[in-house]
């Protein structure tokens, strides 16, 4: 039986599924099949990015599902992101068009600024995706594009229908407040790292005050980062094994992963988990059909350590945007 996923109505009237599938670290070799199977399982939102390096394969999975009549394009909500090297205003539209071509579609449902960091332009024919380093190895070269100029270019992309909604990712409160002084189009969505070790309640409050939906990534905390050989993640107790999470899972007959995702969705936050296992794929989608008690939610929120994993410095990259 297909799982009915609730939608979030964005500030521009567009509707976004509250549970989606995140494409970060999905292997190129299996990506097309993974996306196709996720669509078959009931996923409709796919959260991709230039930097993930798998947009062509993601698009192949989508094309197969459409060709077989599983879905129409308008049933899907396809998300991508602008990489740091393309922040110069004149580079924004060309790279959006390249990404659309990679996916094999003619519009994104949502397109984010991936990080509030301008890096020096690297042409796609030189290296794609370009990654953090200008030389592809160790040299960070910051660009000259202001976030205002980049956002204005995104507004043009939105106006031309290349992206039905536009948003920001990895922004903090000060950058949001600054954005409100120059934005003609208010971001539809703010995407942030969000799990019980990094709750960011004040940032979420600020977004809600301005009717900006919030999507949380890395809902399982350190779990996603252990495979990146991150010492901080390896040294942090897994949320799946935390007594507070396990207790709630047992009380509801759910998995710890489902509890972590419900903790977010019940508080109005959208989630984009990924899994390579069919069983977990279905479980992760079924995270709006049960309710945690207020006590359980408060207890889980009480695990907050303000602990951020997805900072460049944790990967040994000398970019200090979260300083």
Write structural notes for this entry.
It comes from Pleomassaria siparia CBS 279.74. InterPro entries: AKR, AKR2D, Aldo/ket_reductase_CS, NAD(P)_OxRdtase_dom_sf, NADP_OxRdtase_dom. One of its GO terms (biological process) is D-xylose catabolic process. Substrate binds at residue 114. This is Aldo/keto reductase. The termini are far apart. Helix 4 (147-159) links the parallel strand 6 (110-113) and strand 7. Helix 2 crosses helix 3, helix 3 (89-103) crosses helix 4 (147-159) and helix 9 packs across helix 10 (256-265). The strands form 2 sheets. Strands 3-4-5-6-7-8-9-10 form an 8-stranded parallel β-sheet. A two-stranded antiparallel ribbon has the order 1-2. It is an alpha/beta fold and 323 residues long. It has 12 helices and 10 strands. It has helices spanning 28-41, 55-67, 89-103, 147-159, 173-182, 201-209, 223-226, 231-234, 243-252, 256-265, 278-285, 294-301, and strands at 7-9, 15-17, 21-22, 45-47, 77-82, 110-113, 166-169, 189-193, 213-217, 270-271. It has a single domain (15-306), classed as NADP-dependent oxidoreductase domain (TIM Barrel).
SSE series = EEEHEHEHEHEHEHEHHHHEHH
Return the CATH topology. TIM Barrel
In total, the number of strands is 10
Low-confidence stretches: none
Beta-strand percentage range? 5-15%
CATH class: Alpha Beta
Write a concise keyword list for the protein shown above.
323 residues, two-stranded antiparallel ribbon, 12 helices, 10 strands, globular, D-xylose reductase (NADPH) activity, AKR2D, xylose metabolism, NAD(P)_OxRdtase_dom_sf
